[in-house]
Amino acid sequence: MPPILQIQNLQKTYASGLSALADVNLEIARGEIFALLGPNGAGKSTLINIICGIVTPSGGTITVDGHDIARDYRQARATIGLVPQELTTDAFETVIKTVSFTRGLFGLRRDPAHIERVLRDLSLWEKRDSRMMQLSGGMKRRVLIAKALSHEPRLLFLDEPTAGVDVELRQDMWRLVRRLRDQGVTVILTTHYIEEAEEMADRIGVIRKGRIILVEEKAELMRKLGRKQLTLQLAEPLSALPPALIDRGLELGSEGRELVYTYDSQAERTGITRLLNDLTQAGLSFTDLQTRQSSLEDIFVGLMRERA
């Protein structure tokens, strides 16, 4: 089955000479949740805005569900739902009217049953007759998602969807995104919350200075780049590492009461057995040990440092 989104050699250079995107190539499979990570100014929003027809590219091609976004603009745009970062709504309009109106913008017939389903899924049905000005910031964020889903898109962009919302609402949105994926909707997510990508995404893409530097299955990325840490709780604190242990890649922590050893869990030899023997020979004993797997945040920070 062909990908729902294909991007080839995409470029964007502004009149000032600023290169926002350079030779971006990316394919998104149908029905996946794809998380696009990157620091501020990396080009995430520019990329989304070009795909959605808000910003004009300087070069390259993009097809959405087989439709070229330049030649078949209407068909391509009808396939896409966009939840922007900014809370831009008509303050005096009611929830149900603003969502229904957005559906009409795509030339679709009224479908009260679909609008009701969307509002119920987002816990907005009880607020359907409330004016937008009466809603909390979190509820307004839900309305933006409802608007994006009003015309039944097959590709949904969530640009920092949980920025500034509480933990409960964030978890509600995670559940909704999973339901959408189960219904066949492809979701592309940009986020500053690394745990959000780690929790939800099937694949991870990292963008830096307008270039895609990595695209990988989340599980494979964690396997390839993840590290483990072995933390040993010492029976007696150390002021410094014994000379025989200096070259073992150890770090002293917790005021000398811990030894931390970082290793590649996929390596043929982790060095743990040798380390424990060295500790015994150095006359050190420990009361407890713990292991910790690197998180996606650790990996992301490491990638940014490598590419700096």
From TrEMBL:
A Pfam family hit: ABC_tran
Protein name from the UniProt record: ABC transporter ATP-binding protein YadG
Residue span, ABC transporter domain: 5-234
One MF annotation (Gene Ontology) recorded for this entry: ATP hydrolysis activity
UniProt cross-references to PROSITE patterns, sorted A to Z: ABC_TRANSPORTER_1, ABC_TRANSPORTER_2
Coiled coil: none
Gene from which this protein is expressed: yadG
Keywords attached to this entry: ATP-binding, Nucleotide-binding, Transport
Species per Swiss-Prot/TrEMBL record: Methylobacterium gregans
Gene3D superfamilies, sorted: P-loop containing nucleotide triphosphate hydrolases
Annotated family: Belongs to the ABC transporter superfamily.
Superkingdom, taxonomy of origin: Bacteria
